[in-house]
Every structure is written in C-alpha cells, then in structure tokens.
Design brief:
362 residues; alpha+beta; Lysozyme-like; 3 domains; 5-stranded antiparallel beta sheet; 6 helices; binds zinc ion
Length: 362
C-alpha cells in the first residue's frame, strides 16, 4: 500500500476501487466535491457511503490531504475505467458549490500533491483540453460539470505551476489568477448564453443547425470558426460563435429543435465511444435474435451483453450472474455507425440507442 507522505489522514476502508489492470500511473484528475468539506470528511464519506464512488485523495478547504484509496488501486471517480486506471484522482473541497471555487489553501495543497505524484511516477502535467493529456477532467468522460468552471479555467495554470516546480524554477506566489477570456474571444467559460446557431464541431465543417438554444459556455477554442462549446446540464450540445449568441438566457420557444438539441452533438459518425457505468435492470436476460440481451434503461432498452463489460466488484460481478441485477456494466469501445439527429439516437453495433450515457474516446 502506498500513498503520498503529504497526506495527514487515511481512511482506506472504501470498497469502491479496482486494481489498475496493469496500467501505470501517468495522469492526474482533480475533481470537485461541491462541498466545503475537510479532506478527512470526504475520505470518511467515501468509506461509509453506498454510492459507487471513491477517490485516491481528498483535499479539504483548509488544505488538509486525506488518502482514501491506495495509489496501487484505481478509485471509482471519473466514470471511465481507463482514466481511473491510469490516474491518481483527487477530490477538492469548494467554497462555492456552483462555480467550484477553491481556497488558496486547497490550491496550494493540490499543486504540492501533483508535484509529489509527478516526481514519484516520472511524468509532467500536460493539459490538452481533452483526454489525451496527463491532466484530465471528469467532464471529459461523462455528463458532469466536474471539476467546475473555476478549476476548469485554471487547468493550464495548474499544469504550468506544477511543471515549473518540477523544473526547479521558482514560481511567483501561486495566487490563482482571475479567469480570463482568451484574447479575441468575447465570451468566457461559464457564461450563460442563448444562441440561434449550433455546429456539431468547432470548425463548422459539418451540419449547421438553426434554432433556439440556451446553455452555458463550456469551452472556448481561440480562433475557431465556432469557438464556444455550448453545454446544457453538463452535456455539450454543440458549438456556436459571436454571431449566433445573444446574452439573454431564456427557455427556447417552440419544439422544433427539442429532439435534436438533446443529442450530444460531439458524437458523430465514425467516432469511438464508451459509456458511463450503468446498472442493469430487473428484467433478467432476454434472447433477441441471436443475442442474449440485458436491459439498460439509460440506453433505452435491451442491449446485447457481448457489447458490455462488467465493472469489477459491482453486485452480481463475483458470482458472474448478470441477471441478479445491480451488476454495473459499461459499453466497451465501439464505433458510432450512424447518428439520427431528429430522433436523438445513435447506432452502435447495429443497434439504435439513446446517446446520453455515451462518451467519445480517442
Ligand atoms: Zn468528478
């Protein structure tokens, strides 16, 4: 069992972890607690809670670091087994549950812990804005706003401060800077907006939808044709630009776009996806055609078990009986064969499903 010497408290009785499936630690994923807790409170919560969640470390609002899951194990934190297998995950306390704002003490401990982890495993923090980097975010894998707009805006700064420390440079006092709009772009991450234009990608090379959407800017790509990613309830619904935006959020009128706006426009034909963890339903298993299927309500119905994998240690896993229910599964890496924007469904493995639990992977 190993954990950082920076931790001042350990409660490693959470049941919710796996081994690392042979993966080496090469990433760090900071999360937000959306609570003004101490690290100890959070680790104790993971130890007793029945929610299937955990984290390697928890940093409190006073900067205390608690260990919850040993570094040899993947905690269940990021809704993505590959990321959790490769990452040390760190829950951070917040003084604003909406923006995810942290105290200076939490920020300093996060920087210190990241430096310690990077030194011990021999990697640097590389923030690419997607899951290919060594500094990743929960929202890259699931429909969540975690780690919150405050930390998301500071991910490049976190990488820069940690790498400067690894290089032995002195960094100016690490006061987190005020979130800023990338130069040239009018709106910044976290701004609520309303728009009449959505593109399925930031380059605007595919279909441009016209309608009426409200949401929050989730990401800004400087210089892109459609630089603003529009998120609703933590899910990206498309990209827009200055011409499409007015800043008066309202409930869209009319229903003509209601089905197409719900689809995660980031998913498109040819992309590869996996899914968040899903509990199978109570209906047992059913043979449909040649396939033995389980009921996955989040995907919209019966789905072949040959295309899912079980999450180790979930109920029903050890006795290998999927139809005992409560087994937790996820869709393994699969190609999106087709997208039907009008019906808000995508085709994977020859079957049309609800795209909500799907998340694009490299
Ligand atoms: Zn998270």
């Amino acid at each position: 069992m190993s954990y950082s010497g920076l931790a001042t408290y350990c409660n490693r009785t959470s049941q919710h972890y796996d081994g690392r499936f042979g993966y080496k630690v090469c990433k760090i994923t900071p999360h937000y607690m959306a609570a003004a807790w101490s690290g100890k409170q959070c680790a104790d919560y993971f130890a007793r809670n029945t929610r299937q969640a955990s984290s390697n470390y928890c940093i409190g609002i006073n900067g205390d670091i608690a260990c919850s899951v040993d570094e040899e194990n993947a905690a269940w934190t990021s809704s993505n087994w590959l990321n959790d297998s490769q990452s040390i995950t760190i829950e951070c306390g917040n003084i604003n549950n909406v923006t995810g704002e942290m105290t200076q003490a939490t920020w300093d401990s996060l920087v210190n812990l990241c430096v310690d982890i990077c030194k011990r495993y021999g990697f640097r923090l590389n923030y690419t804005g997607n899951s290919s980097g060594s500094l990743t975010m929960h929202k890259m894998f699931a429909a969540t706003s975690c780690p919150g707009a405050w930390l998301e805006a500071r991910m490049p700064q976190l990488a820069q401060e940690v790498n400067a420390r690894l290089d032995g440079q002195t960094v100016a006092p690490s006061a987190p800077s005020t979130p800023n709009t990338p130069s040239g772009e009018k709106y910044s991450v976290g701004t609520p907006i309303c728009t009449n234009t959505l593109s399925v990608n930031c380059y605007g090379t595919s279909k441009i939808l016209k309608g009426d959407w409200s949401g929050t800017i989730g990401r800004v790509i400087k210089g892109a044709k459609y630089p603003y990613r529009v998120d609703r309830n933590g899910v990206a619904i498309g990209w827009t630009n200055d011409a499409g935006i007015d800043t008066d959020p309202h409930t869209p009128v009319g229903t003509t776009q209601s089905s197409s706006e719900a689809i995660d426009q980031i998913l498109h034909e040819g992309s590869y996806v996996t899914s968040v963890h899903m509990k199978i339903g109570n209906q047992g298993l059913k043979k449909i055609g040649d396939d033995l299927c389980c009921y996955l309500s989040q995907l919209g119905g019966w789905f072949p078990i040959r295309m899912v994998d079980k999450v180790p240690n979930s109920d029903g896993y050890n006795d290998n009986v999927l139809h005992t229910t409560n087994a937790v599964v996820y869709v393994t890496r699969i190609r999106v064969d087709a997208v039907n924007v009008q019906k808000n469904i995508v085709k994977i493995g020859g079957i049309w499903v609800d795209p909500t639990p799907l998340t694009e992977i490299a």
